[in-house]
Amino acid sequence: MKVFKKVINIVIDVLVVLILLVSALVLTLSLASQDTGSPNLLGYTLNAIQTGSMEPEFYDGDLLIGKSTDIDGTYNKGDIVFFESSYKGEDGIEYKMVKCHRIVKTKDDNGIKYYLTKGDNNKISDEGTDGWLTADKIVGVYQTNDYQGKKLEGVGSVIDYLQSFWGFFFVIVLPMILFFIYELVRVIRNVMAYTKEKAIVAAKEAAENAELSEAQKQKAIEEYLASQKVKEESSKNEDGSENQG
User: Fold this and answer.
1) Which of 6, 63, 226, 228 could form an S-S bond across to 156 if both were Cys, CB 3.0 to 4.6 Å?
2) 3-class SS at 51?
3) pLDDT at 101 (0 to 100)
4) How far is CA 19 from the centre of its chain?
5) How far is CA 166 from each of CA 63, 170, 173, rounded to the nearest angstrom?
6) Where are the alpha helices (H) located in 114-173, listed in sequence order?
7) Measured on CA atoms in the order 219, 222, 227, 228, is the torsion positive or negative?
8) What is the pTM of this model?
9) For the chain, what percentages of helix, strand and coil (3-state, to nearest 5) are there?
């Protein structure tokens, strides 16, 4: 039984460590994506694909890992890039996001280079939604002539779920609450066991003291009886002496 409890405690501790690591990852991704809508970590950008606009290159739910770029970078036709965009939510508020599409056209205007993107699976370009992009709008590259990013199939859906309210609650918050309750119960049980053990020790000490007190009482009685006997003998001896006189 003790071995089983130890195994359970080890498993729970491992799960807690994993939950803390996932929590740290989600928090890091959330903080790193505040500026552009896409996490930028150690020179790499991560983007969870949420549409099928680039199929069959990658699919909805994939996680792409690309290389972050400078605001004055230069790109070519055919490059797949991450760029800043936005969308209007159901609440009417405009939110930042990052798209990953292929550059289909480039042009120069007064020394400034512009890029037009399009999803491989889309019929039209992004000109009507995002317009022609400048380099400062491009935050990273997934594929160029000399670079190829990484694709993790299905991982993007997991990241999106963890960053959602209910995903964070069920995967992070709820397990931590259950762990806290479990630890609280375990602490209460340990305190009760310690109190019980302390009470047993105190009872044993009291019993030993009680036994010692009884022994002392018995000794005192024996000493009293002995002294009484000595007095009686002394009294008899004195009476005998008087009679002889």
Assistant:
1) 63
2) coil
3) 93
4) 3
5) 20, 6, 9
6) 155-163, 165-168
7) positive
8) 0.58
9) 50, 25, 25
Compute the distance between CA of residue 193 and CA of residue 2 in angstroms, rounded to an integer: 15
How far apart are the C-alpha atoms of 206 and 198, rounded to whole Å?
A: 12
Token pair recorded at residue 214:
């009884």
Rounded to 5°, angle at Cα 47 from 53 and 94: 80
CA-closest candidate to residue 64, choices 53, 72, 75: 53
Q: Locate tokens 């930028």: which residue?
A: 40
Distance CA 25, CA 42 (A): 14
Is the dihedral angle over the CA atoms 137, 143, 144, 147 positive or is it negative? positive
Pairing between strand 80-88 and 40-41? unpaired
Shortest CA distance to 131 belongs to which of 113, 118, 153, 116?
A: 116
Give the whole-angstrom CA distance, residue 125 versus residue 54: 12
Q: What is the pLDDT of residues 57-114, one digit of tens each?
A: 888 888 888 888 876 778 999 999 998 887 777 777 777 778 899 999 999 888 889 9
